[in-house]
């Protein structure tokens, strides 16, 4: 079965805080498709570490401000 | 891909069953039909892929990391049908079953592999990749 990822993110909030950046604009700056940004925002896809850093760099914030993992779920 | 494979297989079965009216099914000439159907399916897949890519607006058709992961997942999962078909064909060859059935089991395995892989890719696009 498809389990939803435990990784959550604040991409939607960050986009609006950065001049209401569109999903298409973010996708272009990261170098992925808009569908991938939609899937990440809806927690249907966990990006690679490299893509996660690229997204954080677009917003100019640390990785932890974009992606979150619940405490006590390391295993 | 799934549609082309399924349509190709449907056409093939219809042609073979149509010829089998008067003779035993294992006596029906199938090899040329099978090769033409496989060749046609490959050409149709390429042509459709190009047509869809040209007709799609914006970044549809552009592939990124997620597309590649979903493609790999679908192909990997679809391989199971090929493995099972290969094992079935191996067993049938050892049991000296008629060549007609061995060839058709292998062709069916290719079709099922293609259909399963495509369906899993569509599910992965809509609901996300499974996590392990």
What is this structure's SSE topology?
The complex is a heterodimer of chains A (75) and B (132).
Chain A: E1 8-9, H1 11-17, H2 23-30, H3 34-41, H4 49-59, H5 63-66, E2 67-68
Helix pairs in contact in A: 2-3
Chain B: H1 2-19, H2 31-55, H3 65-94, H4 99-127
Helix pairs in contact in B: 1-2, 1-4, 3-4
How would you spell out the order of helices and strands of chain A?
Answer: EHHHHHE
Helix content of chain A: 40-55%
The SS-based structural class of chain B is: mainly alpha
User: What is the multimeric organization of the chains shown?
Assistant: heterodimer
How many DSSP helices of chain A? 5
Separation, N- and C-terminal Cα atoms of chain A: 19 Å
Estimate the strand proportion of chain A.
5-15%
Biggest sheet, spatial arrangement of strands of chain A: 1-2
Shape field of chain A? globular
Low-pLDDT stretches of chain A are none
Rg of Cα set of chain A: 12 Å
Q: Got a strand count of chain A? A: 2
* C-alpha end-to-end distance of chain B: 27 Å
What radius of gyration of chain B results from the CA coordinates?
18 Å
User: How much is the average pLDDT of chain B?
Assistant: 89
What's the overall geometry of chain B? flat
- Tally of extended strands of chain B? 0
Number of helices of chain B: 4
Structure characteristics:
heterodimer; A: two-stranded antiparallel ribbon; globular; B: mainly alpha
Describe the structure in your own words:
- The complex is a heterodimer of chains A (75) and B (132).
- Chain A is 51% helix and 5% strand.
- Chain A contains 5 helices and 2 strands; from the N terminus they run βαααααβ.
- The two termini of chain A are 19 Å apart.
- Chain B is mainly α.
- Chain B is flat and about 55 Å long.
- Helices cover 77% and strands 0% of the residues of chain B.
- The interface between A and B is medium-sized, with 20 and 16 residues.
